[in-house]
Structure to design on (661 residues):
């Protein structure tokens, strides 16, 4: 029998019982729908946090301190990377710049038209970061107006802060902010779009001079020490070797290595390329997404039992029809084909509607959360494939039973 | 075509030789068909009569390739049925046998036209001109205006006409009818029998199971079955109401 023929006949059987067929496919629809929705959420969150960093990035290496656990690593902020470490790292071949990153405690930010509350509590709407001007060379930081600071009384603000000032702050404007208990006056030298760094809160970037936190070095001297560093390599070709050398230095010879043990022996120095950092992050997200999707996939099992159940009922109900078909020349193979195709159609329809429902709920969800919409194409393909597999597997036994129907018995029935 | 009888053509469509079929009801063997030999010549019209339990249906199942004998052989169109695989027997049913049942046995969800061409669906290679074929056959039984009606929209007589059209769709060697008028009133039954006569006059070979004498008399001969054995084969004189020459 031709496949098209069995599809036509099976379709007739399915549409002959619309409510039953709908309820049967519901299990598959829900299962696949939830899996797809989770993929949309996970993908949207990832896209939202990591954005388009993957493209046109720089050969960057981050130096951070993290807890030493394989799952759910957390970055901790301890001031262990001393100025000596920074200077030595700068001398490693292939290093273009080393930009220390530190957060300063600050008071309110005041400008001509108003003020923005600062400080360290929940009321703080912005943070002040001290860094090296070379940080802004990285394309992670996209200078939309003006340029990096070049004098101690200049500062760079990000777009989030400009927004917070209701667009009153612009290049050339002045503001004062209390840093370490002293009112400091700055002129804005540039506005930066740092949305790709994953920390898009409103920020004022000031020169390192304002960072005065010092730590006692192993040599007994007091030096400024930072919680994190950003190392720029001269080129992508040198990225790995720079990473290796920086890692080698930091793990073995640095002040940081000696200081870290004083803090907590459960933490380690992580020297990662920006790619690895992002990968680590997206891996965690992936694991969570996969875990949730896996639970959702359980309902697929329920769905396939539903299809098998309804198909067995259907075989019993249609025993006489099977007898008729056999009497007019249907072979076992034809009967199996008919019932398998029917189960298959149910599975595939369930999968298709499941994908649509999943994308729909996913879309509504990410829209409400303000995340970008992603279409998990691989999962859509997998879902349809799963629909086919579920259909075939749940149809196998009923089809086999149908094929075994004895036409003599079947036709004798009233 | 002139009216074909066994005497005129002598060509055998189906031959059953020393056929037995035994069922087991618990430990009791039931000899449904016991050492029966019967052959149907091309163009013949045979009726099988007998009390219930005499083996009428079993004989029909054996001749219709739905069942295989425990002993003896059934040869259809030159092929010995019990040597064929399941699939080949199914194919043989589809192409060489046309079944007509007491309860019509139409597919409830298919239209009249689709029911008529159902055997073509399982007969690979024949997939064009189905609609035309259904139209031709249904026109012929007077249902040309009912092509797209479902069985539940048709009367009993109309359903049996659809079933007859289905039996003919693959131009079978043998038409098997099991109590074809059993579920119909006398008038409608008479009309169906007239149709059978017409088909026989065209040269089709028909075997009909019935328990009504006046229905059996439409045939050329009547096989009387008792307890699984042929008791008598009676030739029917040409006294059928619609006898005569057919164009």
């Amino acid at each position: 029998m031709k496949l098209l023929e069995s599809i036509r006949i099976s379709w007739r059987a399915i549409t002959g019982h619309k409510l039953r067929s709908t309820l049967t496919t519901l299990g598959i629809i829900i299962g696949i729908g939830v899996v797809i929705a989770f993929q949309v959420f996970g993908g949207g969150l990832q896209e939202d946090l990591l954005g388009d960093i993957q493209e046109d990035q720089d050969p960057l290496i981050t130096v951070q301190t993290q807890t030493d656990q394989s799952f759910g690593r957390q970055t901790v902020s301890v001031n262990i990377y001393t100025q000596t470490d920074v200077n030595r790292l700068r001398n490693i071949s292939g290093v273009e710049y080393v930009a220390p990153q530190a957060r300063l405690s600050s008071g309110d930010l005041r400008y001509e038209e108003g003020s923005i509350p600062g400080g360290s509590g929940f009321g703080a709407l912005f943070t002040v970061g001290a860094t090296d001007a070379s940080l802004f060379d990285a394309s992670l930081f996209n200078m939309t107006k003006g340029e990096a600071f070049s004098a101690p009384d200049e500062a760079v603000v990000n777009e989030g802060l400009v927004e917070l000032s209701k667009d009153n702050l612009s290049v050339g404007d002045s503001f004062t902010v209390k840093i370490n208990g002293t009112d400091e006056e700055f002129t804005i030298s540039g506005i930066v779009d740092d949305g790709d760094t994953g920390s898009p809160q409103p920020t004022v970037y000031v020169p390192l001079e304002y960072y005065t936190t010092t730590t006692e070095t192993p040599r007994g001297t007091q030096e400024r020490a930072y919680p994190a560093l950003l190392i720029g390599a001269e080129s992508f070709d040198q990225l790995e070797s720079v990473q290796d050398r920086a890692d080698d230095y930091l793990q073995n010879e640095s002040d940081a290595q000696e200081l870290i043990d004083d803090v907590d022996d459960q933490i380690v120095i992580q020297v990662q390329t920006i790619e690895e950092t992002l990968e680590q992050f997206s891996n965690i997200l992936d694991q969570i997404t996969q875990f949730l999707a896996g639970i959702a996939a359980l309902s697929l099992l329920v769905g396939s039992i539903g299809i098998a159940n309804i198909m067995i009922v259907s075989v019993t109900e249609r025993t006489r029809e099977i007898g008729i078909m056999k009497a007019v020349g249907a072979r076992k193979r034809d009967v199996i084909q008919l019932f398998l195709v029917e189960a298959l159609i149910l599975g595939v329809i369930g999968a298709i509607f499941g994908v649509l429902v999943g994308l729909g709920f996913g879309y509504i969800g990410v829209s409400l959360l303000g995340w970008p919409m992603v279409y998990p194409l691989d999962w859509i393909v997998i879902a349809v494939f799963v629909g086919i597999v579920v259909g075939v597997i749940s149809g196998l036994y009923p089809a086999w039973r149908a094929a075994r129907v004895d036409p003599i018995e079947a036709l004798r029935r009233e | 075509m002139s009216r074909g009888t066994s005497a005129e053509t002598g060509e055998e469509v189906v031959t059953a030789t020393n056929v037995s079929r035994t069922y087991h009801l618990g430990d009791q063997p039931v000899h449904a068909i016991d050492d029966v030999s019967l052959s149907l010549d091309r163009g013949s019209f045979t009726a099988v009569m007998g009390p219930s339990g005499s083996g009428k249906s079993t004989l029909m199942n054996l001749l219709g390739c739905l069942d295989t004998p425990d002993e003896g052989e059934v040869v259809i169109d030159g092929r010995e049925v019990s040597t064929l695989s399941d699939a080949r027997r199914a194919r043989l049913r589809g192409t060489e046998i046309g079944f007509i049942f007491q309860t019509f046995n139409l597919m409830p969800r298919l239209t009249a036209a689709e029911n008529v061409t159902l055997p073509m669906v399982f007969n690979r290679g024949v997939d064009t001109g189905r609609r035309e074929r259904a139209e031709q056959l249904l026109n012929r039984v007077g249902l040309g205006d009912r092509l797209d009606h479902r069985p539940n929209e048709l009367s009993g007589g109309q359903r049996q006409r659809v079933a007859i059209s289905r039996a003919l769709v693959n131009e079978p060697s043998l038409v098997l009818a099991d109590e074809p008028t059993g579920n119909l009133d006398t008038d409608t039954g008479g009309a169906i029998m007239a149709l059978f006569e017409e088909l026989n006059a065209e040269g089709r070979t028909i075997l009909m199971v019935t328990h009504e004498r006046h229905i059996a008399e439409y045939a050329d001969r009547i096989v009387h079955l008792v307890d699984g054995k042929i008791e008598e084969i009676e030739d029917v004189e040409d006294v059928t109401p619609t006898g005569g020459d057919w164009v």
Chain B is about 30% helix and 30% strand. Chain B touches chain A at residues 57, 61, 64, 66-67, 86-87, 90-91, 93-95, 99, 101, 103, 105-110, 118-119, 121-124, 127, 166, 170 (CB under 8 Å).
